Amino acid sequence: MNPLRTNGRRWGGNEGRPASVRGEFALPRTVTPALPPVEDFAGLPLDGRLLAALAAHGVSVPFPIQGATLPNSLAGRDVLGRGRTGSGKTLAFGLALLARTAGRRAEPRQPLALVLVPTRELAQQVTDALTPYARAVELRLATVVGGMPIGRQANALRSGVDVVVATPGRLGDLIDRGHCRLDQVAVTVLDEADQMADMGFMPQVTALLDQVRPEGQRMLFSATLDRNVDLLVRRYLTDPVVHSVDPSQGAVTTMKHHVLHVQGADKQRLTAEIAARDGRVIMFLDTKHAVDRLTEDLLGLGVGAAALHGGKSQPQRARTLAWFKNGHVTVLVATNVAARGIHVDQLDLVVNVDPPTDHKDYLHRGGRTARAGASGSVVTLVTAGQRRAVARLMTAAGIAPETTRVRSGEDALARITGARTPSGIPVEITAPPAEQRGRGPVVRGRRGPVPAFPRTAARRRPAGTAARA
Q1: What does the DSSP 8-state code read for residue 279?
Q2: Which pTM was predicted?
Q3: Residue of 429, 392, 457 whose CA lies nearest to 306
Q4: What is the CATH number of domain 255-468?
Q5: Is 259 helix (H, G, I), strand (E, B) or coil?
């Protein structure tokens, strides 16, 4: 019996789905020569308060994309920047945005600067990264995203906000309701511009960009760029400074890539063994239903897991991420909503339980590990029907992975992923004591019978006790 199959349900599965390969983006030519890069923040015309805040946060040397783009963005030039995930893009555009906005004060409903992002998680990460620097120069910053009470966001805008970090849909809703105008926005940033240019976002993005000050500054940043961004560049950027730290193809040198050929009947057991490793891991699947099923099954097998997908409310998603970052749960089971905008220190493994269909998604999923010079591994589980599609995807991504045929319980699987046998004792995830305040459990494992792994390898626990994470 397959240990992770219950009531005939299966999770995962994009068997045989072809990989989508998009054309390489043709970088535009710059007419006006770019200013030379700097190797130290002190060499930039930055407000002393921003320099002091950088020093206070231990940021002493700019990343390459920061050193290259900041001299130009601080001078008011439009910027098109590409750098791998974890390369410092947020401060690359954030410091320029804050420096060029400092000293001004927004009127109610009329922000002065705007950062557009594709997901709630990325919006929160950008907000968290910029908040201490915004405070240093006395700028008011607000996050505008779906899944949160729109009334509170409307109240913040009515009170006056200098910088808005927003997802396009929610910002459009607030504008339609009369709570916000963009005609005073002088600095506009698109973060993860390639995803923003996808068909689902393009009408919303262009509608918003058409409302900001036409003579204002615009910056587009992403880890990958493709031809979908051409329209945005041609229509909204004027003589941009182009800086590409990394090509769209290629890998971070500190990241290892593994393709594991697995048997379909063994995939679920093998996945559970990887999840039971000593250390945190993000596991990606295609659908929210598959994510929920795998999370429930892992809890029932003794693995502290939590689900993250677009069907969760924003407070639920924020709480899940916080628990994963602080180690309260060790496995984050997610859809592509977690592929961008999540930074977790010392995360050394990402697993594609369902291989992505697009090479950009592969690069972004993998980019959750090996960040800022750290090392990490990306593992993709591939069944027989997926091999050709994954081979094409790896070629498009510029990846030459190590390919290994594995089965559950084998030494090779443990060597590559740290896999081990789950205890088989259901776990119950409850809020940490500081969060509980009288609340009951937030996530529970199954109470019914749990398919058992071999008891010889299971972690021992006194009879009659339940594991609790």
Answers
A1: S
A2: 0.65
A3: 429
A4: 3.40.50.300
A5: strand
Pairing of strands 427-429, 443-444: antiparallel
Q: How many CB atoms lie within 10 A of CB 163?
A: 26
Domain ranges of the chain: 41-244, 255-468
Q: Which long-range contacts (CB under 8 A, 24 or more apart) does 195-203 make?
A: 195/118, 195/222, 195/340, 195/360, 196/116, 196/117, 196/118, 196/168, 196/232, 197/228, 197/229, 197/231, 197/232, 198/228, 201/118, 201/168, 202/228, 202/231
* b/e code 430-447 from CB counts within 10 Å (16+ = b): bbeeeeeeeeeebbebee
Question: Residue 295 in contact with residue 305, Cβ under 8 Å?
Answer: yes
Burial 47-74 (b: 16+ CB within 10 A, else e): bebbbebbeeeebeebbbbbbbbbbbbb
Specify the residue for token string 């509980």: 436
Over the stretch 374-409, which tens digit does the pLDDT of each residue have? 678 999 999 999 999 999 999 988 889 999 999 999
Ramachandran sector of residue 26 (left: φ over 0; alpha: ψ -120 to 50; beta: rest): beta
Phi, psi of 390 (to 5 degrees): -70, -35
> Which pLDDT value is given to residue 443?
45
Q: Give CA 431 to chain center in angstroms.
A: 24
Element (H, E) at 59: none
- Give kind and range of the element (H or E) at residue 34: none
Question: What is the C-alpha R_g of the chain?
Answer: 23
Q: State the pLDDT confidence band at 430, using cuts at 50, 70 and 90.
A: confident
Q: What are phi and psi of 381, to 5 degrees?
A: -85, 125
Task: Lay out the sheet containing 79-82: strands in order across.
Answer: 141-144, 163-166, 113-116, 187-191, 217-222, 79-82, 241-244
C-alpha–C-alpha distance, residues 116 and 74, integer Å:
19
Residue 434 banded pLDDT, cuts 50, 70, 90:
low
Q: Which fold has domain 41-244?
A: Rossmann fold (3.40.50)
Contact 384, 265 (CB under 8 A): no
Tokens found for residue 79: 């910027």
